[in-house]
Amino acid sequence: MDFYVLCDAATHLKMYPVFDVIHYTMMCINVKEDIQKSAAFPFSRHHPLALWFSSMLMCFASQIWLCLLFNTPLASLLNNPHSILIATAVWYAINYTPADIVYRLLSFKLFKLIISLMKEVHRVYGIHAGVLLAYKKFPTQYLLQVVAGLLKGSSYVWMKPFERFVCGYWAPNSNELLQPSFVAKASTVISLLFVLRSAEVIQVEHSVLFSCSMAVLVYLRLSMILLSTKDPFLPFENLICSVIFGGMWDALRRARTEPVNGVVATDTKVKKS
């Protein structure tokens, strides 16, 4: 089959309902596992309303952020009650089935792998949808388009502090500004590529860019799960921090003040009395 035909087919996958259910499943599992790390009691049995609300925050985080970004009423989220019902059904199955059979089944590595890879496909569609929506509203605001794609592709990692707050604990030291995740970095890069393509800075077919972004994310996620590889952006971050943000000068200063043959080098001169 022709390469361009495959790329074009990849850009026309239907997200509803299969990929949306995968997204809801991953969000509800993330909330459940996040709570299990901090709660010393069965949280789902004592606080089902807080658990449901925090799970819905994560499931619909992208819509919430875009409503805030474009000054759209949050009540518009209720225009699609079917999605809320599906997300609620997924939430109930993961948290309240007898013997946690659904959660235990999804915890097997094979199912976690399938869910994670399908989520990356869903992520690329979300990034493109966010960039396209911002482009239609503000065609010349390129930074806003990148932000929209970022929020659409990594919305739940930005919503996590609020999800934890709803569940009764606060962890201000763990947020995306202090500790950016791979998801946020990848969403930013792909959003930037889509914006550059729409601005005709880079000349490439839309379907090719879309499919290649999807393939790269799936490959990176696969290597992270099976090979336990680290964040591929870290080497570039270390290089940028060393060159631009003072890391190189700090290293030079430490080299000048480190002991050499038992003598500490110093720039200060001792005045003679």
Q: How much of the sequence is in beta strands?
A: under 5%
Principal-axis shape: globular
Distance between the termini: 87 Å
Please work out how many helical segments DSSP would assign: 14
Mean pLDDT across every amino acid position: 88
Q: How is the secondary structure organized here?
A:
Layout: H1 3-10, H2 18-38, H3 43-46, H4 48-59, H5 61-69, H6 81-96, H7 101-106, H8 109-137, H9 142-153, H10 155-166, H11 182-198, H12 206-226, H13 234-243, H14 247-257, E1 259-260, E2 263-264
Antiparallel strand pairs: 1-2
How does this structure look, described?
With 273 residues, the protein is mostly helical. The protein is built from 14 helices and two strands. It has helices at residues 3-10, 18-38, 43-46, 48-59, 61-69, 81-96, 101-106, 109-137, 142-153, 155-166, 182-198, 206-226, 234-243, 247-257, and strands at residues 259-260, 263-264. It has a two-stranded antiparallel ribbon. Helix 11 (182-198) packs antiparallel against helix 12. The radius of gyration is 23 Å and the shape is globular.
What is this entry, summarized?
The chain is mainly alpha-helical.
Looking at this protein, list some descriptive labels.
single chain, 273 residues, mainly alpha, two-stranded antiparallel ribbon, 14 helices
